[in-house]
Write a structure and sequence with these properties.
heterodimer, A: 294 residues, alpha/beta, 2-enoyl-CoA Hydratase, Chain A, domain 1, two-stranded antiparallel sheet, 10 helices, B: 318 residues, 9 strands
């Protein structure tokens, strides 16, 4: 009797430790990033407390109100791309800090460690329900997903790779705009990426851009809004100038739902607002519809 | 002491000359002015250049057009929504060669500035520019753009009509044109609003013009949460013509008279015209495909980065 209870207790302890370890692990991972601060968090739209671990399992969607949280680039690829088909390309670029700003390199190193990305954009080859494509994802946890020299270069490279392989390209945008720390070079990335889109488009290839929360500034004014098909996630902030800047300029409060994806759909700048759960299926369908049929 | 207070001092000295009738004293003061100008007006900091680029008396795009192309005909409207007064566009000849000229126009006084919306275009302005550029492509006319804008307008109407989309379309289509495009930054070149007219074969810049990703005030308020540190921001932002020429972002610098463009406007216009025509005669020899290819490769190579290197991978494992 005694021995049995002993072993049972032991197993219970082990299980408890294991559980603690797992939750600690995710907790630390989440803690390193600045936005999801803990295991439990309040949903900004319905004010209910939600378990972030469960939330991540639920593709970062709130269980109660369906609010879409920001998604990390790696999770996005895991969610959209078929298992074991993703091959990352274009690693290993570093910026040379053109304005010689103090602390910029250290800042980048910190974000690299926290997000396990080399820049705010990753791309590669992948399949969506068997449909081959090039996929590029911006990560808003990396310095607000801002576009500097390296992000611009990698976006351009992803289009060039798609041209080389004659593949359609799907890009998920999430960015605060051009990266100020790199000054004029960030601005020039807008022209660079736009002309890359043009070259890809001239080859008769498909470019689907998916606008996710938040997409503003220089990214909106370049490759994000140049897609043949522009999709958006529900309630994502999409616009050229940030809401704070507009409020300061015109000195009045902005109406509710302004610059959200539903607003853009109504104004005719987005083809369709799609719920995250339907996204993969819709993308696969769109890619299939754009195969050469003759 | 920044450039504006130096200017005030100069004006004071000149007034003193006018008040005096005595020829000896006048001579002496004139000499003093000359020496002061040479000593102080040549030493310009980046912030001085920002002030000069925004100077109240600085010639606007229309002044340039009046000199460069006296027979300019303005064309209005984007055919979709309305005419944006902050962008002027049309056709005119320069040395007998017809050009499509597009420019952002600042006002000279408050009333005029309200009409021109402080040279901050709405989406319809960019769509008008694009319409005129496509027209130029059809009739094989070279394009000249004069840039003088603090940036695209951030407002409710602008967002509703797709400011980002309009700028992106301009970047997309301008990179595809096969006619020679020359862009001249004559004053402020602010952010995407300036770049939407700046995807050109040749980008020229006046000596005291600035071209930057956002205003020094905005930069200071975002990085240091204090917009009064703008002079400090201007120094590190690398927004002057000299810095940008070093980076090969722009191709040529156009000289301005001592003290800024407004001291001798005709000289500024003359220098600008000579520079534009010199570039045009270089470009006119090239075929359309060549022009397109060169423009794309030029913009393709912009970036301050180190290319692939295994060491750069650092600790990234996936």
């Amino acid at each position: 009797m005694n021995s049995i209870s002993k072993t049972l207790n032991k197993r219970k302890k082990l299980k408890k430790n294991l559980k603690n370890k797992i939750s600690e692990g995710t907790y630390n991972k989440v803690k390193n990033l600045d936005v999801p601060k803990g295991l439990y968090e309040k949903c900004p739209s319905c004010d209910k407390t939600i378990n972030m671990k469960k939330n991540i399992e639920n593709d970062y969607i709130c269980n109660h109100c369906g609010n879409h949280f920001r998604m990390r680039a790696i999770d996005r690829i895991k969610y959209i791309i078929d298992e074991d088909t993703f091959a990352e390309k274009g690693l290993g670029f570093i910026t040379l800090n053109p304005l010689f700003q103090d602390g910029y390199e250290e800042k980048l190193a910190k974000y690299k460690k926290a997000t396990n990305l080399d820049e705010a954009y990753i791309y590669g080859f992948g399949q969506i329900f068997g449909q081959p494509c090039v996929i590029g994802v911006m990560d808003s946890y990396f310095l607000m997903g801002s576009m500097g020299s390296v992000v611009g270069e990698k976006v351009t490279k992803s289009f060039e790779y798609a041209i080389y392989k004659k593949l359609p390209i799907v890009i998920f945008t999430a960015s605060g705009g051009a990266r100020m720390q790199e000054g004029i070079f960030s601005l020039m990335q807008m022209a660079k990426t736009s002309s890359a889109v043009a070259s890809h488009s001239n080859m008769g290839l498909l470019y689907i851009s998916v606008l996710t929360h938040p997409t503003t500034g220089g990214v909106t004014a370049s490759f994000a809004t140049l897609g043949d098909i522009i999709l958006a996630e529900p309630n994502a902030l999409v616009g050229f100038a940030g809401p704070r800047v507009i409020e300061q300029t015109i000195n009045q409060k902005l109406p509710e739902g302004f610059q959200r994806s539903e607003f853009l759909e109504e104004k005719g700048f987005v083809d369709k607002v799609i719920h995250r759960k339907d996204l993969k299926r819709s993308l696969a369908k769109l890619l299939a519809l754009h195969r050469r049929s003759y | 002491m920044d450039i504006l207070s130096k200017e005030k001092k100069l004006a004071k000295l000149e007034k003193q000359i006018n008040d005096l009738g005595d020829s000896k004293a006048v001579e002496k003061l004139k000499l003093e002015i000359e020496s002061y100008k040479k000593k102080e007006m040549t030493k310009l900091t980046a912030w001085d250049r920002v002030l000069l680029a925004r100077h109240q008396k600085r010639p606007t795009a229309k002044d340039f057009i009046n000199y460069i192309s006296p027979d300019f005909i303005e064309l209005h409207g984007d055919r979709l929504f309305r005419d944006d007064r902050s962008i002027i566009g049309g056709i005119g000849t320069i040395d007998g060669i017809p050009f499509t000229i597009i420019a952002t126009q600042k006002g000279k006084n408050l009333e005029n500035n309200l009409l021109r919306n402080f040279a901050m275009p709405h989406p319809e302005g960019y769509r008008k520019a694009l319409r005129l550029m496509e027209q130029a492509e059809k009739f094989k006319r070279p394009i000249l753009t004069l840039i003088d804008t603090p940036g695209a307008y951030p407002g409710i109407g602008a967002e509703e009509r797709g400011q980002g989309h309009a700028i992106a379309q301009n970047l997309f289509k301008m990179s595809q044109l096969t006619v020679p495009i020359i862009a001249v930054v004559i004053g402020e070149g602010g952010s995407g609003g300036a770049l939407a007219l700046g995807v050109a074969n040749r980008v020229l810049m006046l000596e005291n013009a600035i071209y930057s990703i956002l205003s020094p005030e905005g930069y200071a308020s975002i990085l240091w949460k204090d917009s009064t540190l703008a002079p400090k921001a201007a120094e590190i932002m690398k927004l002057t013509a000299l810095d940008l020429k070093d980076f090969e972002i722009i191709d040529e610098i156009i000289k301005e008279p001592l003290g800024g463009a407004h001291y001798n406007k005709t000289e500024t216009f003359k220098n600008t015209k000579i520079a534009i025509m010199a570039e045009f005669h270089k470009l006119r020899r090239l075929s359309g495909t060549e022009l397109h290819y060169r423009k794309i490769t030029k913009f393709r190579n912009f970036g301050f980065l180190q290319r692939f290197n295994y060491e750069n991978l650092g600790g990234i494992k996936r």
